[in-house]
Amino acid sequence: MVADEEGPLCDQAEFDELVNGMVATFAPRLFAIVQEYGDRFDARIAAWGMAFDDEDEVEVISVGGALRMSYRTPDRALRSFARHP
């Protein structure tokens, strides 16, 4: 039987609250990968990432969108953008 055939679980306000709580609980953690140049000389945001708590999954997209990658941890993603002095 399909759930909507049984009728709503609750009123609209309570349902909205439940869905908003679910979104807040399971939202990925956002982070930036920043490349620093010199000793506090300059820096740039190289990429943005999302880390999902319930899985070993990190998604990264470079600024401009030319590069998209998946990793197990944010630290592994950071290594891809490391530059030697």
Automatic annotation (TrEMBL):
Superkingdom of source: Bacteria
Protein name stated in the entry: Uncharacterized protein
Organism the protein comes from: Amycolatopsis balhimycina DSM 5908
Lineage, top ranks: Bacteria, Bacillati, Actinomycetota, Actinomycetes, Pseudonocardiales
